[in-house]
């Protein structure tokens, strides 16, 4: 009976759970799905850093590829970070093959904004020789299984993959003017901030639930994503239309996001510690 009810009246089905302060999957309203991260063991042999993040069923992989290029004329002392989020048809029936759809484009823009606003990496750190040579970091984030909350998973995978990157030492030969790459000497990136995204779905314009599934996102009257850094500072608030939020509700979201930041940072640190050679 409940399966029929869920199919015919999904919103009413959800409301019955939400009234009891729980969700059909057994979670409380403020509870995240099981979160795991694998760093550097993702079998992307061509990547300079990689990570795989699972948020419940939502599974995202991020590979970072570093290439050398000339800096832009107006930013002679800066390198580049180029993010791209892909939602291929294999990850969910809601996506089609072909050029990136609206949701993939919005996710790519969100990740670009997180990189810019949080200053996760100072672009000056990617410059090798002023006006001559800089690193370009291509950050490809691909969803393997889509079950909602792609923004949190993508931001987490990006951060974990960047922390895994090792760049070879590069110098410019004064006589020839050519770059010389020393693959034996590799250095990690300087990660200046650890931005973490925390997403909420808004039900019936008032009720907030954290880490929504795809079904919950579809039934929600709006969503909001809060990005915070190590100091609990707000890097960005991403709210694509939908129900308005009161100041008090937004403050609730920020408080929960700061707690989530600590959980994610602890998880990354633990995984990195476990893969470092003694």
Give a quick precis of the structure.
The chain is built from six helices and twelve strands. The chain has 278 residues and is an alpha+beta fold. The strands form three sheets. Strands 1, 2, 3, 4, 5 and 6 form a six-stranded mixed sheet that branches. The protein has a four-stranded antiparallel sheet with strand order 10-9-11-12. The protein has a two-stranded antiparallel sheet with strand order 7-8.
Explain what you see.
It contains six helices and twelve strands. The protein has helices spanning 2-8, 10-18, 102-118, 150-164, 214-219, 247-275, and strands at residues 35-39, 49-55, 58-69, 80-86, 127-129, 133-145, 166-172, 179-188, 196-203, 207-210, 222-228, 234-238. It has 278 residues and is an alpha+beta fold. A hairpin with a 2-residue loop joins strand 2 and strand 3. 30% of the residues lie in helices and 32% in strands. The strands form three sheets. Strands 1, 2, 3, 4, 5 and 6 form a six-stranded mixed sheet that branches. Strands 10-9-11-12 form a four-stranded antiparallel sheet. Helix 1 crosses helix 2 and helix 3 (102-118) crosses helix 4.
């Amino acid at each position: 009976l409940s399966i029929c009810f869920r199919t015919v009246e999904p919103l009413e089905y959800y409301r019955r759970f939400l009234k009891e302060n729980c969700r059909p999957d057994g979670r409380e309203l403020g509870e995240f799905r099981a979160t795991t991260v694998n760093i550097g063991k993702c079998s992307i042999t061509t990547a300079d850093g990689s990570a795989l993040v699972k948020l419940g069923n939502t599974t995202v992989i991020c590979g970072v590829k570093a290439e050398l290029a000339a800096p832009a004329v107006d930013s002679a002392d800066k390198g580049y970070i180029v993010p791209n989020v892909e939602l291929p048809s294999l990850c969910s029936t809601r996506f089609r093959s072909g050029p990136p759809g609206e949701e993939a484009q919005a996710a790519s823009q969100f990740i670009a904004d997180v990189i810019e606003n949080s200053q996760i990496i100072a672009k000056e750190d990617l410059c090798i020789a002023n006006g001559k040579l800089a690193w370009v970091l291509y950050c490809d984030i691909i969803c393997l299984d889509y079950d909602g909350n792609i923004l949190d998973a993508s931001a987490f995978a990006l951060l974990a993959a960047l922390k895994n990157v090792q760049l070879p030492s590069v110098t410019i030969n004064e006589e020839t003017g050519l770059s010389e790459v020393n693959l034996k000497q590799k250095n990690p990136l300087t990660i200046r901030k650890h931005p973490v995204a925390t997403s909420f779905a808004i039900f019936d314009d008032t009720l907030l639930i954290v880490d929504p599934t795809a079904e919950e996102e579809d039934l929600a009257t709006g969503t909001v994503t809060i990005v915070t850094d190590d100091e609990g500072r707000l890097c960005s608030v991403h709210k694509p239309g939908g129900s308005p939020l009161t100041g008090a509700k937004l403050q609730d979201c920020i408080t929960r996001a700061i707690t989530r930041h600590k959980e994610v940072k602890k998880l990354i640190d633990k995984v990195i510690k476990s893969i470092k050679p003694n």
